[in-house]
Hints:
The chain is α/β, with parallel strands linked by helices. The protein has eight helices and 15 strands.
Amino acid sequence: MSTREIRSWLLDMDGVLVREEHAIPGADAFIARLRELGIPFLLLTNSSIYTRRDLAARLAAGGLDVPEDSIWTAALATAGFLADQNPGGSAYVVGESGLTTALYKAGYTINERDPDYVVLGETRTYSFERITKAIRLISAGASFVATNPDNIGPTPDGPLPATGSVAALISRATGVEPYFVGKPNPLMMRSALNAINAHSEHTVMVGDRMDTDIVAGLEAGLETILVMSGVTAREEVGRYPYRPSRVVESVQELIPELGGAARNDGPGEASKAAGLDEAPISAAPPSEG
Ligand SMILES: [Mg+2]
């Protein structure tokens, strides 16, 4: 992949900036540098439970200072997708406030009788009644959309069933597959690019998962950087039929590349990174809005 001038950044949250709600070392300095230099960026999450304001507060509690408008969720992408496809439509929602708030803001109404869509998101309190209702509405003709395909979510106590698993239950009962909006659908990347007026040829996607972040970034035409601070181990990278533009230990290693008078924390362990080709990323001009 050729070297491109990077002007904006899309960043996965879990495994890239935070782990179990605590900032990954260097993440705070990385975000602070982006903000200092006025470089456009967006944090991406497939989660649809929380609103951006909730997420900003949770990140702050974990040690990361991020403005709420620098956060992009699968709920926002889903609401934007629906508003674009069918403006002013209606939905029956199985999900939390992050999703219902996004749908209301996108001009949707909530309808429990004959909605245009059943929209499934992540929740911690899946109710048998709501799932039954969703199944009946889909069987009666409502279209089925889900915020993201993740089957499980990690917690300190072990995996938690997530949107993809509940979608499978509903699909099994109805024979209808949902349209998934979140990663790895490149639609998630495109909606994020639109949200910050960025262009794919000058944007990089940083993620910790090959099968979501990296493939979605690739399919959306972005430069991609895989970090080793999350779920993917270096030896797994070669098993995929696609590869990231580069591999780094963590976002800490990317700070000097952001440009300006970078504080040099020293190369440290960063330099013994990548078994893959390392195409350097040129620094973003601070003037770029
Ligand atoms: Mg991740």
